[in-house]
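Reopening this one. Same input as before:
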Amino acid sequence: MNSRAGALALGFSSAGHFFAHLLMLLYPTVVLALEKRWGMSYGDLLSLSLGGFVLFGVGALPAGWLGDRWSDEGMMVVFFVGTGGAAIATGLTGGPVALTLGLAAIGLFGSIYHPVGTAWLVRSTKNRGRALGINGIAGSIGLGAAAFIAGALAQTIGWRAAFVIPGALCAATGLALLFCIRGGRRVREPQVEHRLEPEAARSDVVRTFIVLSFTMLADGTISQAIPVALPKAFAAGLTGLTDGRTLDAGGFVTLVFLIAATAQLVGGWLADRFALKAVYVSAWAVQVPLFCIAAQARDVPLLAAMIAVNYLGVLSVPAENALLARYSPAHWRATAFGAKFLLALGVSTIGVKLVAMIHDGTGSFAPLWLTLAGCAAFVAAAGLFLPGRLRRIPPVLAAQSAE
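Same output, byte for byte:
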């Protein structure tokens, strides 16, 4: 791959990952500013975003198919301009119905990124773990920055600015990508598969698809619920550290995800050097006791438990993506990632509903953390049925066994 093309692909893919998570997670913090203004409960306001989260996942499968059949660069332009424009429109809405439609549009256009951007990156790199780690850091920064940016803008300017300003920056990035394409700059090397591996056995492909279908639904529920719950959970549970305002709660959420962002590089390094199955299973197994601790903790222990949980969850992502890439045909890779994110981001929006229902029903987040502990235990147990070993075979021995 041309180094300039590779740099552009990694740069725009990483920017897309940043904005995909940033724009999707502005609202859970903005909710804190709307509770008194609109006279609605936290659960009712949060439920307005459910359609957007559903579309964020459901749209991934057709978006991946279009990326494979049409143009991944073109789809990325649509992602940047469409998601940014939808965020601007959301910031200009005047009531719950219009806000719901705006959040749905953000989710629909945002669904393009994960299947298209991830497959684009996998297709263009030799060291998948490292590239996915760098790209994942950008997504984690967006994930973490969302709460801080939304809290800061809502508190200093107004809740509308929390959507309009990030949306304008996202749309501008799309125009920059379009300029590169129209200017003749190559942003990917067409139909190149840089990492040549023996084709996986059909039985292993089917087995991986079945196992990951269940585990990605469970871990997707966790990854959807935590970012949505944390602003409110920290406002209520970190009373010794915050004054309950949107900026303070958002700042601690940002701290959690910025620390977790470094796990992408660690996870990528582990995925390149150790058995993918072992990295994946171990990362989820350790989260089970941490969720149980969070259910009983407040202030610093709660913050520490959430940092550890998110670090391990993020650490598992490069291994999961590498497993999916290893056991999916190259010419269907964007579609395969689309199926993944349909499960991880779409069907698992039950996590968003869980947050609203459990908080409004119990007034506490402890039952939520225990429920997520059960999900993590399920992922670790099911992961044992993935193909491969828990210990990586040295390359020389692997080559001899294949002869």
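So the earlier flakiness isn't reproducible anymore. For the record, Residues 3 and 188 are 10 Å apart (CA to CA).
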